[in-house]
Amino acid sequence: MSSSHDPTKQNAIDMTNARAATSIEVADVRKFLNGGPLLWDRRKKIVTILSNDPVFDKSLRAFHSRQEQFLRGEAISNRLYELQELHKWSQEDMTIALSVMDEPLPIASHNITFKPVLELQASTELRSKYAAMTASKGILGCYLQTELGHGSNLSCLETTATYLPQTQEFELHSPTLTSTKWWSGALGKTATHGIIQAKLILPGEKDMGPHLFFVQLRSLETHETLPGRTLGDVGQPDTLCGWASTDNGFARFDHVRIPKENMLSKFAGVSDAGEYVTPPHAKMSFSGLIYFRSLMVTNAGWLIAKAATVSIRYATVRRQGEIGPDGLERQIITYPSVHVRIIPLLARAFVYLELGRALTRRVDELTRDLSVGDTTQLAELHHMVSGLKVLVSTTGIQDLETARRSMGGHGYSAFAGLGKLYADFLPAATYEGENSILEQQVVRAALKTFRSLSTPRPASLSGTSSYLCLIRDKALVPPKATADTWAKPEAAISLLEWRASLLVQEMANTTTTPDPSITQRVSRAITEAFVAARVGELIAALDSAFKPRAVAVVRKVYLLYLLTTLESALVDLLSLGLIIATVETATHNPTRGLRLAVARLCKELLPEAIGLSDAFGFSDWELDSALGVYDGRVYEALWAKAQQEPLNRTDVTEAYEVSIKPLLLRGQKIAGAKL
Amino acid sequence: MSSSHDPTKQNAIDMTNARAATSIEVADVRKFLNGGPLLWDRRKKIVTILSNDPVFDKSLRAFHSRQEQFLRGEAISNRLYELQELHKWSQEDMTIALSVMDEPLPIASHNITFKPVLELQASTELRSKYAAMTASKGILGCYLQTELGHGSNLSCLETTATYLPQTQEFELHSPTLTSTKWWSGALGKTATHGIIQAKLILPGEKDMGPHLFFVQLRSLETHETLPGRTLGDVGQPDTLCGWASTDNGFARFDHVRIPKENMLSKFAGVSDAGEYVTPPHAKMSFSGLIYFRSLMVTNAGWLIAKAATVSIRYATVRRQGEIGPDGLERQIITYPSVHVRIIPLLARAFVYLELGRALTRRVDELTRDLSVGDTTQLAELHHMVSGLKVLVSTTGIQDLETARRSMGGHGYSAFAGLGKLYADFLPAATYEGENSILEQQVVRAALKTFRSLSTPRPASLSGTSSYLCLIRDKALVPPKATADTWAKPEAAISLLEWRASLLVQEMANTTTTPDPSITQRVSRAITEAFVAARVGELIAALDSAFKPRAVAVVRKVYLLYLLTTLESALVDLLSLGLIIATVETATHNPTRGLRLAVARLCKELLPEAIGLSDAFGFSDWELDSALGVYDGRVYEALWAKAQQEPLNRTDVTEAYEVSIKPLLLRGQKIAGAKL
């Protein structure tokens, strides 16, 4: 290593060189990933406004206490709508502005749960009374479902809403400690109103199970808690310091009366006399959840894109280990053990972003269908988003952690930026439907379809169940994986579809003695087969989306997605006989071909890695990562951040007089010496 | 569900019943796990003292800011040694007291790195000058190795120690920003002295590579930073809020002179004239790291034990989902999807605790050997602890996260207690040797031994390499896994040894085209084969350790360890042909037998789960988890914790006037309405 070499300057040189090596037209790919030139343009304008506004400054947030983070979350919520008025942002602009926020905001509950549920399930009267105020944030809402003692089994919720025919009111009540509503975002300190899940009790103590009610929580004059309610924050909400910017709250109700019209009665109501009015479509209430979950696919795509951008940039400028041909330590991204971990994140981000966009279109169509009473797409979309929600939350969490760990020691620094994203995203495995519950729903639907195939009236196969064709058409036999398989998207897709089919078949044949992980594996296999088929469609459409050089590169990105999915499915592929091993193959491990194909693809994509991650279009403000800065000068960024640490305001810490000095003096006395 | 049922009271009933169901003598197992009745007795006494001392109170720490956590860490460090003096605790007592602390303490760097390295590597003169002060904490030390721009490749460190023959001094210097020492525990605000890795430069600009030097950092009079040093805290040290109680620091040196005697010169020195004196045993410097890493095995055992205790207790009292035979929702621990995840944690904790104890004995022996110049055990123990460090840090992180996620929504609460353990343990994958570097060392040693087998002078096989007998003795053929295999420890051990052998062979045969994950997989396979053989020995010794009922139960615990290890190794076992699948087996998945065996064992251990976790002996103070309280009253504990959240001190938050009110008023104006 040359002694005149300065690693700090080398950072910028390495980044410039890597950027120059990219062969694709980054601007084109960026427009594609952002949903077209118009949307990219809007995002850029909005990000410029936000990043220059002091309310959105991130430079000190790593040092904020929980309270400071919460106050900042509220200030951001307010300022966003102030800016909307100021700049006359459309609804779509606001969606973009909210989507580039990397904090869970108190306003999110209002937008993502309260408002859609009110719109979809309130009676016309209730809606017309509150729709304008809800849209304009004249009231702020939250959604109260989970209780301290009760989670996903809604039928066991304890909160009651008892109908009183005399006064035409419902009485909301929390009979026990465990019936306390718990975890609801914005419930603690922000929301003025809530929509609450409570057991509807009709005259004669008839328990009709959980229903939704609209209830005011705080005064619109003073913001004080209204009588009969006990409200509060559940406390430093996340174990890893996530979600500090929002007030997940608790609520108890002591015989609180609300008018009869406050029941959300579009699909189920109570007559004045107290008789239950049956809903025409019980499943209609699912569609709210479908909306929330579909958003998570795009959200996971952007998160993984951030993780990919930060880790690829850092690995490009970080040099460590062996001395390379330039006489310097090698850039760590050149080690296969590093790049096979982080290049696949690019692939997952590309796939999830496109998948999310397609899903949003499907859900918009569904919403239109439902508004005219057409429920034909409801079940299919419900299972699709359930499986996808599990997949993207599981892989998103893994990818964030993979990216962080790939950065070695500095990856642990709060200034690396990925830890906060991880902590904020982690609960995604539980909220909006616990993953294990959703898996059961996905699998149950698949088993039903599978069983119908041997009946006189087989279900028609499409979308999430089309892989079952392989089982239905008995003439088809599973392919043999060969070296060729790893170069052909269609072969990879076929293997993933066979895996799903054979696993569903195995599960159907072993229902009396299921192994405890089969539900999880079957759900994942079904969803991955579905996504793989969509990736096949994306590949087929590549020529119309990109110029030739980018087509070749993005094709590799999509193929890498398929191959890494296969790699994570190896136990299934091997145990189902889709990849064959024998004792004799011990010297010719049949999984080597796949692993080498992944390694080869990653290596081929290496010169494009910076270009592909630049194509996501993140500004330094959006990433807020000392390790992911655009210019690559990571060490200067880390140093500058550390200087702001509050402990560094004084040379001698206040712990000295209180604790360190007594410890030293005692030690010196014991040693009988003074140096 | 009966309407008179009170889930709060049910918590305590469920816990009492579960405790009564245990068949083993908990007290006996507890003594065993704690290393005998004497050590258990000491731990109990020490925990009683600590948990009644206000300095060690944990009731508000979830709400502490970084600064408050740091001040608490310093106060705890001081108080521990004050208590040592007060209660006349022995060194062994202090080891226990430090081991029950669940905070990374500033004093840890002094005890775990500074002191041992000084003792082992300093010259007699330097040692005699500082030994007493180091032992008594009259000075406080830290260890400066990693630099801002440089990690595990020590030869590329930039900090220099230039020998000046004229004055018989070394001049320490940080030539660049990237040479800044970074991450060292206690360096920021606590340590008065440090041992620093720096490139030794001899006259004529001869670069002799990294060596260790002793340097004072802060004044012993005022605690101010001495001239020529720039010291500080690297900032909120962990991305997930871990390590807040310690001051990971940075340091730069501007031509700081230290006397020649300050070089740690037991194994390598410089003559007065500036000539290098070659070390007799270059590897001697490894032995410090061996000591740190061996501690991590026991540490991981206790951490997993905590995760097991908390998750098993919560799953015992949490009821959710289906209505069971008692008319209540089922205890979640009764679901196979839950208990197959958390019961195996018991097994891993049992194994690691015993393994750690045996390892500590081996390392103590090694230390004695080394002090008389005997290095025969050094290489073997170095590879053993390297592999084990990787294994226990990897599985420990996974197990903590598995336990936390098994607890559903409440698992995300800071009051669940496991998140803090996770955040504090996560860096274990990187510190004291980055895992991927250690894996390379383990694998390199194995390949060397393997290749020697076909030479006229084959290496002797023992300990970490004994599994290679299978390859050496050509007559042996791999076993066929049958239903029986999953009931017999020896069969499971044999499969794990065959896997290690065949993978090493595969790697040796494919060095020209290695797949990128093979180093990781081979290292893991070797270490798991080694641990499996030790578990075989533990099983053989069971009859002498326990009464008959406990023997039967603990035997199942150890077998469960082996089977879950096999399950996590399925890709290898299948692809190496140790478990055979064919297309025809698609309806008879060959991995089902293993999965069902794991499920069966977990189910059989279910009635013992509370007893086995009680046997670790944790007090509520040690666990500090609302979900893991001994009496099972988890909801009351969560409620009580939430009431202490600082945001709950006022009903109306201070964010109301600043942010929420403007947002509401603007919305009401836009909607043109006031409710």
UniProtKB/TrEMBL annotation, chains A, B:
Needs which cofactor?
Answer: FAD
Domain (Acyl-coenzyme A oxidase N-terminal) spans 28-130
Q: Does the keyword Flavoprotein apply?
A: yes
Annotated active site residues, numbered on this chain, are: 432
Q: Any idea where the Acyl-CoA oxidase C-alpha1 domain is? A: 287-446
* Record's keyword annotation contains Nucleotide-binding: no
Give the Gene Ontology MF terms in alphabetical order. Answer: acyl-CoA oxidase activity; FAD binding; fatty acid binding
Which residues are noted in the entry as FAD-binding? 146, 185
Cellular component aspect of the GO annotation: peroxisome
Compartments (UniProt record): Peroxisome
Keywords of the record, alphabetical order, are: FAD, Fatty acid metabolism, Flavoprotein, Lipid metabolism, Oxidoreductase, Peroxisome
Q: Which Pfam families match?
A: ACOX, ACOX_C_alpha1, Acyl-CoA_ox_N
- Positions of the Acyl-CoA oxidase C-terminal domain: 493-664
Q: Could you list the residue ranges forming a coiled coil in this record?
A: none
Chief site of localization: other
Q: Which InterPro entries match?
A: ACOX_C_alpha1, Acyl-CoA_ox_N, Acyl-CoA_Oxase/DH_mid-dom_sf, Acyl-CoA_oxidase, Acyl-CoA_oxidase_C, AcylCo_DH-like_C, AcylCoA_DH/ox_N_sf, AcylCoA_DH/oxidase_NM_dom_sf
Q: Which GO terms describe its biological process?
A: fatty acid beta-oxidation using acyl-CoA oxidase; lipid homeostasis
For this protein, the record's PANTHER family field holds: ELECTRON TRANSPORT OXIDOREDUCTASE, PEROXISOMAL ACYL-COENZYME A OXIDASE 1
The similarity annotation says:
Belongs to the acyl-CoA oxidase family.
Name assigned to this protein: Acyl-coenzyme A oxidase
Q: Which organism is it from?
A: Favolaschia claudopus
